[in-house]
Write a structure and sequence with these properties.
This protein is mainly alpha-helical. The chain is about 85% helix and about 0% strand.
Length: about 170
C-alpha cells in the first residue's frame, strides 16, 4: 500500500510539473504493483493510462511497452480478442520505431494468444516471426526458446489435422 501511495503521488507530481515521461513511468509502476496486489482490472486501468500518456507524448517505445502490458492483462482477464488487438498495436508501433525487442515480445505473445485461442495457423505465423527476430537479434537463448515454441505450435497444427481432424492416425 505504501508503494502504491508513493506512485499515486508521483503521478500527481508529474502532472503538476508537465513531465509525461515520469507520469507514464508512474502509471506503469502502479499497474505492476496492482497486479501484485491481485487487482487485475485496476492494473489494466493503470496500464491503459500509461498507454494514453505514452501515445500522447510521442513516446513510441513507451507506447509499445504499454500496449504489451495492456495485452497481457487483457489476456489474463480472458479477453483474447482485445489482447490480440493490443498486441497488433504494440507490434505496429515497435516496427515503426524498429524496436526489435518489442517486435519479438509482441510476436511471441501473439503466438501464445492465438495458440490458446486454438487459432493454430496464426499462432505458427507469429511463432515463426518470433524465431526469426530472435535469430536476427543474435540472442541464442531467446532463439532456442522461440524454436521450441514454434515446434510445439507446428505439432499442434499438424496433429490437429491428422486422422480426419481426430488428432491421431489410424494404425
Amino acid at each position: 500500500d505504501d508503494a502504491k501511495l508513493f506512485f499515486e503521488n508521483a503521478v500527481e507530481a508529474s502532472k503538476g510539473c508537465g513531465d509525461p515521461a515520469s507520469e507514464a513511468r508512474a502509471y506503469s509502476s502502479l499497474g505492476s504493483i496492482t497486479v501484485l496486489m491481485g487487482d487485475m482490472r485496476k492494473a489494466l486501468e493503470y496500464q491503459r493510462r500509461y498507454l494514453v500518456v505514452a501515445r500522447e507524448s510521442g513516446d513510441g517505445h513507451g507506447e509499445s511497452a504499454a500496449s504489451l502490458e495492456v495485452a497481457k492483462l487483457q489476456d489474463r482477464l480472458g479477453n483474447a480478442s482485445e489482447a490480440i488487438t493490443s498486441l497488433k498495436e504494440a507490434l505496429a508501433v515497435a516496427e515503426e520505431t524498429n524496436d526489435l525487442h518489442a517486435i519479438n515480445e509482441a510476436c511471441k505473445h501473439l503466438g501464445e494468444t492465438y495458440k490458446n485461442d486454438q487459432q493454430n495457423v496464426k499462432a505458427v505465423h507469429y511463432f515463426q516471426e518470433h524465431f526469426r527476430v530472435s535469430r536476427d537479434m543474435g540472442e541464442a537463448q531467446t532463439a532456442d526458446s522461440a524454436r521450441i515454441q514454434l515446434g510445439f505450435a507446428l505439432g499442434d497444427h499438424h496433429f490437429g489435422h491428422a486422422g480426419n481432424r481426430r488428432g491421431y492416425l489410424n494404425m
